[in-house]
Structure formats: C-alpha cells, structure tokens
Here is the input.
Amino acid sequence: MAVRLGDVAPDFEADSTEGKIRFHEWLGNSWGILFSHPKDFTPVCTTELGAVAKLKPEFDKRNVKVIGLSVDPVEDHKKWAGDIEETQGAKLNFPLLGDANRKISDLYDMIHPNANDTLTVRSVFVIGPDKKVKLTITYPASTGRNFDEILRVIDSLQLTANYSVATPVNWKDGEDVIVVPSVSDADAEKKFPKGFKRIKPYLRVTPQPNK
Ligand code: BEZ
Here is the structure.
C-alpha cells in the first residue's frame, strides 16, 4: 500500500550504520527525511550520499533529521562509507538503514516491480514533527536527486506550517509568498504586518514573513 501525503509515516525498528533505530523515537520532535538507494556500491548513490553529507548543516539548521536506506546489510554500508569518503570528500554523517529483508522498502512501497523487482526506486519522504508525511518524490534509479530542491521544499513546508502561506512557482528563499485562501483579508492584515498585495481576491502576495 502506497504511503500518501497526510498519512502517519509507518514506524519500524531496524539496524543502521549508527546502531538500532526505532524510527518514530529517533525522529523525536524533528522534521525528517527518509530516502532510499537502489543498492550499495553503485555510482549515482555514491554521489548522492556524499552530497547529502555536505548539506547536513543545512538540514540541521532547519531541524530536519536525515536517514538513508539501501537494500543491503549494514556491514556492506560500512564498507561503502569508506568509498564515499574517498571519492566524494565527505564522511557519512547520518544513519544509513540496512534493509536486506526489504521490510522497510515494502512498508513504504519503495520497490516498483515494473521498474525493477529487487532494487528500490529513489524515494524521498519528508515527515513533519507530527510524524505525518508532507512530501513524497520518486525518481528512477538512473537519475540522481536534486537535494537543493529538497531543501527548497522543506523551506516552503516550514513556512506553510508556521505562517499560513504558500509558495508560488519556482519560489526561492527570500522571495514573496502567497497568502493561503483560507485566511480572510481582515485576518491577513493582522497576520502580515509587512502588508499584502491583492492582485485578485484569490491571489494575494506578501513578503516572506520570516525574513
Ligand atoms: C546507481 O546508483 O548508480 C544506480 C543504481 C541502480 C541502477 C542504476 C544506477
């Protein structure tokens, strides 16, 4: 069964490169990203894990815990970590789950048999502090993900959670945002002290509130 937006992220217990992890307990009150890798010792995954390790301070700044998964045992992950450090210049600084029995991959529907019946696709799940799934993305094994885009989406999700705003097409941090339709003009005047522009009754923009 697919994991959909708004669902509670399925909980699990599994071994990782940082020891046993009970997922919900490990998340605590943080946001989380769970992302899958088709297999250990594969080239695209190696570049992705190096890139995420370098971006770790950006995830920390946003109170987001990062956890990867690959359908191989943790012992293999630990050997692979040496290659990641050697080739990408970054030490693995977040846990990588072992999923040799594909328990988590099945729980999160990360194996798409018509693409490949043993390897996972490149799934991304962003989970909020309420443990609910806020974003899912699926890439094929052959395409490395854009983790700058994932940071951008987290910025958008956190703005929505904290300020009742949405973000327009191609929005980037620091640009104007959209007042969500459920907020009346009268309430928007109170909520957004920098003011808002009413282009249409349903299209109102305001400077990014946390800048
Ligand atoms: C890779 O990570 O490079 C990869 C993994 C599985 C299939 C294709 C590419």
Observations:
- The longest strand covers residues 31-37.
- The chain has a mean pLDDT of 97.
- The chain is about 30% helix and 25% strand.
- The pocket of benzoic acid is lined by residues 38-39, 42-45, 119, 141-142 (CB under 6 Å).
